[in-house]
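Re: weekly structure request thread

Next one in the queue (235 aa):
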Amino acid sequence: MSPNTVVEEMNVQEHESGFSHVVNAMQINFVRGISYCRMTGGRSLLITIPLIMFEAMTGIVLGFYDIWGKWFNREGISIIQGDYMPMSIAKPMDAPLRFTGQAPKVAFQDINKAVRRYQREAISATLSGDFHGVAVRTKELILGIMSIEDETESLFPMHRHLLESIGFAAVNGITYHKQSEGRTSLLSKCFILTQVMGLNLYCPFDSLAQVCHGYGAGILENDVPYIPFLERFEG
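Done, posted below.
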């Protein structure tokens, strides 16, 4: 599914709770994980098993945000439930990969440094309620990672996905703030901070995923829905 199609579908998507989102993700990762395991001689299990475990733990946290968000959902403010793209729009498991290479160690070192700097700046901006500032910094890092992908002919899907999610929540947070006259700001801050501080837990998966991509397995790249943060931010 192309980004433009996703942007159009974004306006008609069914709302999905955070808990439901992570449960659907676990189901996809489990089912596809069996095929990926066969394709990679078991190497993909180093991603599939820890990822499902992390998602199970994340579901508890997201369930809490679902409950908090419902106070505003009843007023027609879609905070939390409007911050997810449905797992149903993830690419088919066998969708062709843009790149199948493995980035050199120095590329990961550069990205790790950029992520740590981003976390410091994004946390500071979030705490001050500067959601636009969070979005700006998120866009800069996403574009930087995409540039590294082109240079190394390798993919960093988990980095992109998590950053798109943070940026999407930040842009939406601006809208929710206006709709609620500021009452949603605390929830938006907590939701964004949770994601920003969790970046380091999931980002290492990209190194393992690149090995699998060399076997033609689209793990991670094809398993997460595209989040049109850049289109929403620039629109």
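Residues 45-73 form the longest helix (29 residues). The chain is about 70% helix and 0% strand.
Next request, please.
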